[in-house]
Amino acid sequence: MPSRQRRRADPRHGALITRRALLPALAAWLAGAAPAPAQDEPPQPKARLAEELTVTAAREEARVADTPASVAIVPAAALRVTASGFLDDALRQVVGFSLFRRTGSRTANPTAQGVSLRGLGASGASRALVLADGVPLNDPFGGWVYWARLPRLAVERIEVLRGGAADLYGSGALGGAVQLVSTGARDGRALEAELAAGEASTFDGSLSARAARGDWAARLSAEGYTTDGYVPVAESSRGPVDSEAASRHFSLDASLERRAFGDGRAFLRLQGYDEDRENGTALQTNDTRIGLAALGLDWGRAESGRTALRLWAETQTYHQTFTAIAADRTREDLTRQQHVPADALGASAQWARALGSRQRLMVGAEARHVSGTTEEVAFVRGLATTTVDAGGDETGGALFLQDLLQAHPRLLVSGTVRLDGWALGGGRSVTTPLATGVAATTSYPDRDEAALSPRLGVVFRARPGLSLTASGYGAFRAPTLNELYRSFRVGDTLTLANAALAPERLWGGEAGALATHGRHTLRVTAFSAEVTDAVANVTIATAPGLITRERQNVGRTRSRGLEAEADLRLSDRAVVSAGYALTDARVVSFPADPTLEGRRVPQVPKHQATLQARYEGRLRLGLQLRLTGDAWEDDRNELELASAAQLDLFAGYALSPSVLVFAAAENVTDAEIVAARTPVPGLAAPRQLRAGLRLSR
Question: What torsion, rounded to 10 degrees, do the Cα atoms 40, 44, 45, 49 define?
Fold first, then answer.
C-alpha cells in the first residue's frame, strides 16, 4: 500500500489543496459534496464537469458545481487532441472566448492578442486577466498576451472564468480571468516530449521534465516553433509588397521547490520568452524578449489559517515597424520604428481559514508597479524625420475580502469586495525633429483614482443534479500605458494614443442553471453587463489611403446574451461537448458622437457556436468545429467581417504506452476567413497540415 502523505500546498497556485481529501471544514461548507480523490487513489479523469475543481473562481479550490460564477475548463485530455499546438486556439473551444481579431497568435500581431469575453473587447487591449498559476501573463505595457510563453506540455488544464472578476483580480479582469494551470513538479509523467513538422516549413518541439527527491522537486519545460507562414492578404487584393507572415518563438519555464514550514513550501520560478515575426510585407516586423522571475511561500493549515505570498518581477523589450502601402500594393514605405522597453514588479498575499463548519474567510492584498516607454523614429518616404519618446509609470495597490457561507444545506452564499487604488506619474511625450534637434516636451499631469469592485453570488441546490446560480458584480479596468502613450498603424489605419483616457467601469449580473444526469452536464447562463467609459478605437478622419482613429472613452456600451454548454460523456473513452453563445454588444450612449449609438461593438459576433469530440484509447481522435457569426471591423459598422466556419481534426495512434504518432489538420475545408479589414481584407490561416511524434515515460 502507498504510504500516507502529508497535506501540502499545490505547487500551481497559492491556495491550499489537500490531495487526500478536502478539509473537514470545507467539506462541511460544501454540505455533502464529493471529496477530491486521495493522492494514493487512482485518478478520476472521467469526472463530470460539475465535479471538476477550479482554483480561479475563488482563488482557492472549489467544485465547479459550488461556484456561482460561469467557469469553463479545458482539460489536458482536450488539449492533447486539439489540432493546433497553440493554447489560444484550444481556448476557442470555449464559447464567449475570442482574441480581438479572428487570427490565432501564431501569426497575429501581438497587439491584437488581447482576450475578449462576452463581447467586452472594443480594442486590442485584453479585457480578461490571463494568469499562469496565479502570476499575470498580460503584457505589462499593453495588456495583450503572448500565448506561447508557457510551453503547452507544461499545462495541465485551462480555466476560464466569465464575467467581471475584478473583485478578486483587480484591473485587467473586467470581463473575467483565464488561468493556465501547470502540471506540478511532483505530478504527471517524468518526461514528455513532442516533435512535429508541417506545411510552410513549420517545425515545432516541446519538452517537459520533472524530478523529485525528498523535500525537493523541479520542473523544466521548453518549446520551440518556426513557420514560414502564409500571405495574410486575400489573393484578389495582393500586390508585389505582400509576402508570408512568418513567426518563430522559443519559451522556457523552470521551477524549483522545497517542502518547508511543516505543510508548506517555498518555490522559485523562472520564465524566458523570445519571438520574431514578419507581418506580411518586407518592412513590417516585430520581435519581443521577456524575462520573468517569481518567488512563492506557503505555510499554515486551513483550520488555523493558511498564508500564501507571491513576489514577481518582469522585464521585456518589444520592437515594431509600421509602413504605408500604396493603393495598388506595389510600393511600401517605412513610417515608424518603435522600441518599447517595460518593467513590472508585483506582490500578493492572501490568508484563508475556516470559521466553524459553515464559513470560510479570505483576506488579501496586492501591489504592482509598471514602468514603460515607447521610443520611436518617424519616417517620411523612407527617411527618418522625427524621434518621439513617450511613456510613464503606473502604480497600484489593493485590499480584498471574500466570505463563503453555507447559509442552508441547499444554499451557498459568497460575497467579495475589493478596493483598488492606482496612480499615473511621469507621463510625458518628447518630440524632436531631426532637422533642428530642438525637443518639444509635453508633460501630462499626475493623477490617481480608486475603484470598488464588489460581488455577491448564490448557489441553490434545487434538487439532486440541478443547481441554480446568480451573481451580481462590479469591475473596472485602468487604461494601459500603451493606450495612453503609444500610437500604431495597421495597413491604412492609424490609431492614435490618448493620454486623457479614463478607466472603464462595469456593472453586471448573470443567472443560470447547472444540470447533471449521470455523467452528462448542461449549463445555461444569461448575462448582462454595462461598461461606462469603454475604451474604443473611434474613427476621427477618413481620407484616400488613410483612416485615422483615436482611442476614446465611449459613453456606455452594453453586452447581454445567453451561453449554453453541454458535456456528454458517451463512454469512458468518448466525450462530445457543444456550446452556443448569443452576444448582443452595442454602444448605448456616446454624447460626443451620437451617430455611434446603437451600433455594434467592433469584432464581436452576435452568434458563436462550438463542437468538440474526442476519443481516448490506443486510437486518439479529436474534432473541433467553430462557427462565428458576422461582425464589424470598425466602430461605424461599415467594414463587415463575414460569418465563418472552421473545422480542425486530430488523429493519433499509440504504438506503445510511451510512443504516440499523430497527424493534425486545421481549417480542413480551406475556408477563406476574413479576420480584419484595414480596409484591405486580412485573412486567418488557410488549411494547415502537420504530423509528429509524442514521447512520454
Answer: -130
**Cell 505547487 belongs to residue:** 11
Residue 562: CA atoms inside 13 Å, Cβ hemisphere, count? 4
Q: How far apart are CA 342 and CA 221, in angstroms?
A: 25
The pLDDT tens digits for 651-680 are: 999 999 999 999 999 999 999 999 888 788
In sign, the C-alpha dihedral spanning 195, 250, 367, 8 is: positive
CA–CA dist 90, 88 (Å, integer): 5
Q: Which residue in 59, 97, 103, 65 sits closest to 84, CA to CA?
A: 103
Helix or strand holding residue 620 (H, E): strand 619-628
Helices (H), 5-111: 24-29, 76-80, 87-91
Helix (H) or strand (E) holding 484: helix 481-485
* CA dist., res. 581 & res. 606, Å (int): 8
Percentage with pLDDT > 90 across the chain: 69
Sequential DSSP letters for 124-157: SS-SSEEEETTEE-B-TTT--B-TTSS-GGGEEE
Question: Virtual CA dihedral for 145, 523, 508, 59, nearest 10 degrees?
Answer: -60
Query: Average pLDDT, whole number, for the chain?
Result: 88
CB-based contact 271:290 (threshold 8 Å): yes
The angle subtended at Cα 143 by Cα 73 and Cα 370, nearest 5°, is: 125
39-44 long-range contacts (CB < 8 A, ≥24 apart) are 39/5, 40/1, 40/2, 40/3, 40/4, 40/5
pTM, 2 dp: 0.88
Instruction: Report the side by side order of strands in the sheet with 70-75.
Output: 70-75, 155-162, 176-182, 129-132, 135-136
Intra-chain end-to-end CA distance of the chain, in Å: 23
